[in-house]
Structures are given as C-alpha cells and as structure tokens.
Amino acid sequence: MDTLVQKIEEYKAEIKNYIAQKSEEAEAFRIKYLGSKGLVKDVMGEMKNVAAEKRKEFGLLLNEFKLFTEAKYEELKSATAGGQEAAASDMDLTLPGDPLPLGTRHPISLVRNQIVSIFQRLGFAVAEGPEVEDDWHNFTALNMPENHTARDMQDTFYISQNPDWILRTHTSSVQVREMEKGKLPIRIVCPGRVYRNETISARAHCFFHQVEGLYIADNVSFADLKQTLYFFVKEMFGRLSSPGGQGENVKVRFRPSYFPFTEPSAEMDISCLICGGKGCNVCKHTGWVEILGCGMVHPNLLDNCGIDSNKYTGFAFGMGVERITMLKYQIKDLRLFSENDVRFLRQFTGAV
Ligand code: PHE
Fold first, then answer.
1. Closest CA to ligand 1's atom 2
2. How far is the CA of 261 from the centre of ligand 1 (A)?
3. 184 and 250 fall within a common domain
C-alpha cells in the first residue's frame, strides 16, 4: 500500500509538470494517463491487492488522483485549442483576396466581332464554311477555272492526301456554299481564317483573317454597295476618340480593280489613320490604305450556283481583319498578332 501511494505521488508530480503546446500533445497526455490502457486505470487495478480495511482510504486517494488527472487534461486541452483561436483571430477576413488576372480577347477577335456586329445591324446574318476547302468552292465556282492566271500556285497550300483539297485562300468560298443552298435573298457576312503561302514578314503572313460580305436580291446596285461600305467605315473608324485626325476626317475612295468573281470590281481605300494622310511607311507614302476588295457578283457565279442571273443581282466584298486592326490600334507589324506575347495582348484589356 505504501509503495502504491508513493507511485501515485510520483505520477502526480509528473502530471503537474506536463506541458503541451499543441493539441496533439494534449491528446498524448490523455492516452498515457486516462486512456483505456492508461496509468490511472493501471493504478485502479491495484485495488484488489489492497487489504480490506485499507480499501476505503485507498479508494478516496484513487478517486482524487483520477480527478486531478482529468482536471489537468482539461487544462491542457483548452490551452492548446486556445492557441489556434489566437492564431485565427490574427487573420483579417475583411481584407480583399489576391486578384486573379483576367484574360482578354485577342485584338483580331475584338475587331472581327465589331465588324460583324456593324453588318448585323444592317440585317446581315453570319455564315461560316470549312478552312480545308475543295477546288470548286475556292476557285472554279468563283469563275476561276483550271489554268486561270488568278490561281497562283505559289499562293495556295495544297493538302497532300487529296489534290482536290486546299486550305482556303479567301472567304469567298463561303459565298459559293451559301448561294448553292438556293435560298434567296442572301444577306450574309462570313468571318474566318484564310491561308496563303507567303513569306512571313511585318506586312504578310501565311494565315490571316477576312470578313466576306454577300448580298443577293432583286435590283441590288453598285450604289447599294457603296452606301453599305460608307456606313461600315463610319461605324468602324468614325467613333474613334484617339488623336490623329480620325473620326469625321476619315476619307474613303474606290479604285477600279479586277476580281474574276465580280464585275465591275473595285478596291476601297481609306485615308491612312497612322499618319493622317500625310504619308508614312504603312501607306507607302500615298496617304491611302487599301482595306477591301468588292464588286457586283459576276453573273457566271450566279449561274454556277443555280441562281437566275437575269432575275437577281448582288454585291460582294472581302476585307482583311488584320489590316483594319492595324489601322485602328496603330500596330505596325503583322507578326505581333500570332506571337502571343502577353505584353502585347494585355494592352487590349477593356478595348471595344
Ligand atoms: N476574295 C478577295 C480577296 O481575297 C476579296 C473580294 C471578295 C473581292 C469579294 C471582291 C468580292 O482578295
């Protein structure tokens, strides 16, 4: 009995000095002393070896030991849990979080969307076609039969598996696809990527983007074409507020030209927005920049696609999205559009 009392005293001294900094240490204490195989249980098991007349006295002692150990455990538990609470209260939950950088649309997408939406307001619908095209839709149906000089071999990418397949060289192929559907009137714009086998430089690339326009109905005239394109230029460039003589001052001119699929044909220039018409490298010192090709749909095209060329007339135009973007944002090198340098792309945050 005396050795047991001594043992309890030793345990009590040990318990009294027990220090816990983490909740895991408080738990280790519980297992060591109060667990099902802990020391308190162990000592209680000694009861059966105590003489009967001493049992009451020993029972009180044991009980007091148990309460003492439990109280210490509670103390350790709240001290270590309190530590976490203190750490949590150091946090200011009202502070703003770390901002996630937002991506931006590519300038080519921004301008393409803007071009499309201007024509949508005039009642044009959007049509699309494949980038891998066949000879018929890209050339033959467009009044460019085999051996026509306008089919410059060097400008076209051919698909090696099938000599009839190419990467489309212009979005005019979508015109053919729409006309073949035979639903009139047709009033569409066709945005898309086109490919030409050109050496990459500041002014040329092997792929770029166009928006094609096609309007076929009764009595469509060249005056309708001009008026539509004037409206486009005014909407596209007339709203710019940046300095440099833009806005009201942008001038437009049509020059006679040649395309196998339009007759008469023209190219449209606008006054150079980079130098304000005074002459610079972009306008090759002429003060004018070509932005699109256009004309009245050649009757052969209508016939090729099964549309009565005596009854219907139409106009078509095709513009380069890169060229318009360069003018709008004063970008002097075409290669920037495909290099994906975020320092360049980031500048278009919040642009229209
Ligand atoms: N397809 C011509 C080009 O790529 C542009 C164009 C389209 C011209 C429609 C006239 C009519 O250069």
1. 318
2. 8
3. yes
Q: What is the CATH number of the domain that holds 308?
A: 3.30.930.10
- State mean pLDDT over 74-89: 73
User: 159: CA distance to ligand 1 center in Å?
Assistant: 23
How many separate domains does the chain show? 2
DSSP string, 156-217: -PBPTT-TTEEE-SSTHHHHHHHHHHT-SSEEEEEEEEEE------SS--SEEEEEEEEEEE
- For ligand 1, atom 12: residue with the closest CA: 293
Residue 89 pLDDT > 90, yes or no?
Answer: no
Dist CA 20 CA 2 (whole Å): 31
pLDDT confidence band for 24 (50 / 70 / 90): confident
Q: What is the per-residue pLDDT across 123-176, written as a single tens digit (0 to 9) for each?
A: 999 999 999 999 999 999 999 988 887 777 558 999 999 989 999 999 999 999
- Is residue 240 scored above 70 in pLDDT? no
3-class DSSP state of 262: strand
Distance, CA 294 to ligand 1 centroid (Å)? 6
Which residue's entry shows tokens 């001052």? 249
pLDDT the model gives residue 351: 54
Determine the distance separating the centroid of ligand 1 and the alpha carbon of 277, expressed in angstroms: 25
Pocket of ligand 1 (CB under 6 A): 170, 172, 212, 259, 262, 293-295, 316-318
113 shares a domain with 84: no
